[in-house]
Design a protein that fits this description.
Papain-like_cys_pep_sf; C8orf32 fold; Transglutaminase-like; 14% helix; Transglutaminase-like domain-containing protein; seven-stranded antiparallel β-sheet; 232 residues
Length: 232
């Protein structure tokens, strides 16, 4: 599955930061192009998960934009050395995570999350425990809850971040779980799963704390526009 990605980040009030906007290091990538004005300096930095962040600084905190384009061929992400993705993490605790009783735990967990959670772009919390207790959130909250249920029931699970095909003004979070011996992708917000979903993958992590862009400045703001197209 080949995917063409064009992303633009409009920055204001930003002095420096790190963007998760580049393909995960496990993905085959062609024609990677990063463009920005000369008053922005940037470098790429990889972390323990294989995520590649774009570290940058902006002279005089001018308004600016950073554009990233590439073609990627999606593939499964292998195990990360030293991490089982079975333990509690910063935003994923086992409190309020129910036990699954059926044989098909994947579908049972999807139904549970869709039943217990409603999407609300104006209401977001960080932790899986608070999300399922309050019953609302955005995509990363759905992902945290699903990951919590999976780990609570002995199934390795990690968060994934990137952009689905189509036109979007924000990144999206979904999950990867090790099910029946292989890593597959699950989008609990949409209620779908497959070996690989048609999404451009930027990063994976134990939870959102591993896959979050960060900017520093005076009232820093980022506006994102993403165009993702599936290629034949």
């Amino acid at each position: 599955m080949k995917i063409e990605v064009n992303s633009t980040f409009y920055l204001s009030g930003v002095e420096r930061g790190k963007l998760l906007a580049l393909p995960h290091s496990s993905q085959s990538t062609e024609e990677l192009n990063i463009e920005h004005p000369r008053f922005i300096s940037s470098s790429k930095r990889a972390d323990r998960m294989g995520n590649t962040f774009l570290d940058f600084s902006i002279k005089d905190r001018r308004e600016a934009c950073i554009s990233v384009s590439y073609i990627t061929e999606r593939s499964s992400v292998p195990d990360v050395r030293g991490l089982s993705f079975l333990q509690e993490s910063k935003y994923v605790k086992f409190k309020n995570m129910p036990a699954l009783e059926g044989e098909d735990k994947l579908r049972e967990a999807l139904v549970l999350v869709k039943t217990r959670m409603r999407y609300d772009a104006d209401q977001s919390v960080k932790s899986a425990s608070a999300s399922i207790e309050k019953g609302y959130g955005v995509c990363v909250n759905f992902a945290h809850v699903f990951i919590g249920v999976m780990r609570r029931n002995g199934i390795p699970a990690r968060v994934a971040v990137g952009v689905p095909y189509g036109n979007h003004e924000a990144a999206h979070a979904w999950c990867q779980i090790k099910y029946e011996g292989k890593w597959i992708e699950v989008d609990p917000t949409a209620g779908i799963f497959g070996d690989i979903l048609p999404y451009a993958l930027w990063g994976i992590g134990e939870d959102e704390s591993d896959v979050r862009s960060k900017v520093i400045g005076i009232n820093p703001k980022i506006k994102e526009i993403h165009h993702v197209r599936l290629l034949k």
